[in-house]
Amino acid sequence: MKKVIFGGTFDPIHNGHIHIAYEALYNLEIDEIIFMPAGQPPHKSNKRVTGGKIRYEMVLKAIEGEERFSVSDYEIKNKGLSYTYNTLIHFNKIEPDTEWFFLVGVDSLMALKTWMNIDIILDNCTLVVFSRSGFLEKNVLEMKARLEAEYNTNIIFLQMPLLDISSTTIKEKIAQHKVVNYLLPYKVERMINKYNLYRDKV
Question: How much of the chain exceeds pLDDT 70, in percent?
Answer without folding.
Answer: 96
